[in-house]
Amino acid sequence: MDGSLDALARLRDLQGTAEMDPRNLLWSQLPDLERKVDRQVLTEARVFTLVGTREAAPYDLLRTKVLQLCRTNGWKRLAVVSASPAEGKSLTSLNLAFSMARQSELRIMLYDADLRRPACAPRVGLPEAGNLGSVLRHEVPFEDHAVRFGDNLILALNGRPQAAASELLQSTRTETLITAVEAAYRPDVTVFDMPPLGAADDTHGFLRHVDAALIVIAAEETPLKKLDIIERQVAALTNVAGIVLNKCKYADDLYGMDYGYY
How far apart are CA 208 and CA 170, in angstroms? Predict the structure, then answer.
């Protein structure tokens, strides 16, 4: 009798393995960063969206609008760009990715594709994030580089500036790698934190690989004339998903909330 029960249990285990989504197995094999990250480091870096707090609310609203656009248009790849450095694109990329990942039915992936000045890894307390350039050049397998945060967010970060960043981002090897990873891991949305458009030609060459781009600008810093130029440049290469006004202090009089600076 006991042997029959053991055999039945083994049969159920085998059936469960056969029915397992291969994507789940691939995701589960990546190192999980969630328990290793100091939440205080994230908060000090202004990454607020691990939980649905008041500080996360503006990013959660952005998440909802972006996801609606993605579902309506069938978009899978989203670049986050800015006109100039220090306008908040990396912060927006991280908060958007973590906010999306709070919807447990979604699978989200984030690449730190600003290969000249990588900024995402230090913000999540992972300064030694390895060399994303080696992955894009097919020298290191993606699964040996990427990390997982929880069950449904993959981070492909970068710990050091890359030589020939523009050529690498625009190469067919990079597109081949991204396409292969997409086919294997099947994320619902992949976010790319891109270099500033005005800094070099890296982003201009890469935007043809994405479905849409969010443009991040700094309130009272980015001239409207520059915004108009950047928007036209992005629109010539991909879809414009919207414009994010960052570093803007505002109060929601309707709900009596002051979200502070973002």
Answer: 9
Per-residue tokens: 209: 């690989």
**What residues are paired with 251 via a beta bridge?**
258
- The C-alpha atoms of residue 261 and residue 117 are separated, in whole angstroms, by 24
Q: What is the pLDDT along the chain (262 residues), one digit of tens a residue?
A: 444 445 445 444 544 443 456 678 899 999 998 877 788 888 888 999 988 888 899 999 999 999 999 999 999 999 999 988 888 899 999 999 999 999 999 999 999 999 999 889 988 887 677 899 999 999 999 999 999 999 999 999 998 888 899 999 999 999 999 999 999 999 999 999 999 987 778 899 999 999 999 999 887 777 777 788 889 999 999 999 999 988 776 545 443 333 443 3
Q: 3-state DSSP call for residue 144?
A: helix
